[in-house]
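Backbone-to-sequence.
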Protein backbone atom coordinates (compact mmCIF):
# COMPACT_ATOMS: atom_id res chain seq x y z
CA UNK A 1 0.00 0.00 0.00
CA UNK A 2 1.47 3.32 -1.09
CA UNK A 3 1.94 6.01 1.56
CA UNK A 4 -0.54 8.87 1.72
CA UNK A 5 2.19 11.16 0.38
CA UNK A 6 2.89 8.83 -2.58
CA UNK A 7 -0.81 8.93 -3.36
CA UNK A 8 -0.82 12.73 -3.12
CA UNK A 9 2.19 12.97 -5.47
CA UNK A 10 0.44 10.59 -7.90
CA UNK A 11 -2.68 12.80 -7.85
CA UNK A 12 -4.81 10.03 -6.33
CA UNK A 13 -5.50 12.13 -3.22
CA UNK A 14 -6.10 15.86 -3.63
CA UNK A 15 -3.61 18.37 -2.29
CA UNK A 16 -2.81 22.06 -2.55
CA UNK A 17 0.05 21.60 -5.02
CA UNK A 18 2.87 24.12 -4.91
CA UNK A 19 5.49 22.60 -7.26
CA UNK A 20 6.54 19.34 -8.85
CA UNK A 21 9.06 17.75 -11.15
CA UNK A 22 9.67 14.18 -12.20
CA UNK A 23 11.30 13.22 -8.88
CA UNK A 24 9.77 15.61 -6.32
CA UNK A 25 6.47 17.08 -5.18
CA UNK A 26 5.60 20.03 -2.91
CA UNK A 27 2.22 20.78 -1.36
CA UNK A 28 0.71 22.72 1.52
CA UNK A 29 0.59 21.04 4.91
CA UNK A 30 -3.08 20.42 5.67
CA UNK A 31 -2.56 21.48 9.33
CA UNK A 32 -0.28 24.48 8.86
CA UNK A 33 1.81 26.10 11.58
CA UNK A 34 1.72 29.26 9.45
CA UNK A 35 0.12 30.29 6.16
CA UNK A 36 2.27 28.79 3.41
CA UNK A 37 3.60 25.86 5.48
CA UNK A 38 4.77 23.52 2.73
CA UNK A 39 5.92 19.90 2.60
CA UNK A 40 8.52 18.79 0.05
CA UNK A 41 8.86 15.09 -0.75
CA UNK A 42 10.74 12.77 -3.07
CA UNK A 43 8.34 10.79 -5.25
CA UNK A 44 10.25 7.63 -4.33
CA UNK A 45 8.80 6.33 -1.12
CA UNK A 46 11.51 6.22 1.51
CA UNK A 47 10.55 6.57 5.17
CA UNK A 48 13.67 8.14 6.65
CA UNK A 49 15.28 11.15 5.00
CA UNK A 50 18.81 9.89 5.56
CA UNK A 51 18.00 6.57 3.88
CA UNK A 52 17.77 8.41 0.54
CA UNK A 53 20.80 7.93 -1.66
CA UNK A 54 23.26 10.80 -1.60
CA UNK A 55 22.13 11.81 -5.08
CA UNK A 56 18.45 11.72 -4.10
CA UNK A 57 19.14 13.68 -0.93
CA UNK A 58 21.05 16.44 -2.73
CA UNK A 59 18.42 16.60 -5.45
CA UNK A 60 15.61 16.88 -2.86
CA UNK A 61 17.46 19.71 -1.10
CA UNK A 62 17.95 21.55 -4.40
CA UNK A 63 14.26 21.22 -5.16
CA UNK A 64 13.35 22.36 -1.61
CA UNK A 65 15.56 25.42 -2.09
CA UNK A 66 13.67 26.40 -5.26
CA UNK A 67 10.38 26.00 -3.41
CA UNK A 68 11.67 28.03 -0.43
CA UNK A 69 12.69 30.90 -2.75
CA UNK A 70 9.19 30.95 -4.26
CA UNK A 71 7.65 30.69 -0.81
CA UNK A 72 9.53 33.75 0.44
CA UNK A 73 8.39 35.74 -2.60
CA UNK A 74 4.75 34.73 -2.16
CA UNK A 75 4.60 35.03 1.64
CA UNK A 76 6.78 37.87 2.89
CA UNK A 77 8.64 36.60 5.97
CA UNK A 78 11.87 36.98 7.89
CA UNK A 79 13.07 33.49 7.02
CA UNK A 80 11.78 30.22 5.66
CA UNK A 81 12.30 27.71 8.46
CA UNK A 82 13.29 24.15 7.58
CA UNK A 83 12.52 21.06 9.64
CA UNK A 84 12.39 17.30 9.29
CA UNK A 85 10.48 15.19 11.81
CA UNK A 86 8.71 12.30 10.13
CA UNK A 87 7.09 11.13 13.35
CA UNK A 88 3.66 10.92 11.74
CA UNK A 89 3.97 10.05 8.05
CA UNK A 90 6.54 7.39 7.02
CA UNK A 91 7.51 9.09 3.74
CA UNK A 92 10.45 11.47 3.94
CA UNK A 93 9.35 15.11 3.86
CA UNK A 94 10.83 18.52 4.54
CA UNK A 95 8.73 21.15 6.30
CA UNK A 96 9.20 24.69 4.95
CA UNK A 97 7.56 27.28 7.19
CA UNK A 98 7.46 31.05 6.59
CA UNK A 99 8.64 32.59 9.85
CA UNK A 100 7.96 36.04 11.23
CA UNK A 101 9.24 34.97 14.65
CA UNK A 102 10.77 31.87 16.19
CA UNK A 103 7.36 31.06 17.70
CA UNK A 104 5.95 30.40 14.20
CA UNK A 105 7.76 27.05 14.16
CA UNK A 106 6.30 25.36 17.20
CA UNK A 107 5.13 21.85 16.32
CA UNK A 108 3.09 21.64 19.52
CA UNK A 109 1.22 24.92 19.08
CA UNK A 110 -2.40 24.89 17.87
CA UNK A 111 -2.48 24.83 14.08
CA UNK A 112 -3.78 27.67 11.89
CA UNK A 113 -7.36 27.51 10.66
CA UNK A 114 -7.24 28.42 6.96
CA UNK A 115 -10.19 28.01 4.60
CA UNK A 116 -9.96 25.81 1.51
CA UNK A 117 -10.29 28.92 -0.68
CA UNK A 118 -7.40 30.62 1.09
CA UNK A 119 -5.26 27.44 0.87
CA UNK A 120 -5.95 27.38 -2.90
CA UNK A 121 -4.94 31.03 -3.17
CA UNK A 122 -1.74 30.51 -1.15
CA UNK A 123 -0.71 27.43 -3.15
CA UNK A 124 -1.27 29.28 -6.44
CA UNK A 125 0.67 32.33 -5.19
CA UNK A 126 3.67 30.15 -4.29
CA UNK A 127 3.44 28.14 -7.52
CA UNK A 128 3.38 31.33 -9.60
CA UNK A 129 5.99 33.31 -7.63
P1 LIG B 1 5.63 14.56 10.58
O1 LIG B 1 5.58 13.17 9.97
O2 LIG B 1 5.77 14.50 12.07
O3 LIG B 1 6.65 15.44 9.94
O4 LIG B 1 4.20 15.24 10.32
C1 LIG B 1 3.48 14.99 9.13
C2 LIG B 1 2.89 16.27 8.60
O5 LIG B 1 2.10 15.94 7.47
C3 LIG B 1 1.98 17.02 9.58
O6 LIG B 1 2.39 18.38 9.67
C4 LIG B 1 0.58 16.89 8.94
O7 LIG B 1 -0.23 18.04 9.15
C5 LIG B 1 0.92 16.69 7.48
N1 LIG B 1 -0.08 15.94 6.72
C6 LIG B 1 -0.61 14.74 7.04
N2 LIG B 1 -1.50 14.34 6.11
C7 LIG B 1 -1.52 15.31 5.17
C8 LIG B 1 -2.25 15.51 3.95
N3 LIG B 1 -3.13 14.60 3.50
N4 LIG B 1 -2.03 16.63 3.23
C9 LIG B 1 -1.15 17.55 3.67
N5 LIG B 1 -0.43 17.44 4.82
C10 LIG B 1 -0.63 16.34 5.56
Amino acid sequence: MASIFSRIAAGEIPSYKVAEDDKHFAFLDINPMAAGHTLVIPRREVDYLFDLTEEEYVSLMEFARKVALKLKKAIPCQRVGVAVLGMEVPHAHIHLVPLQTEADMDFRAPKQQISAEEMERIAAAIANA
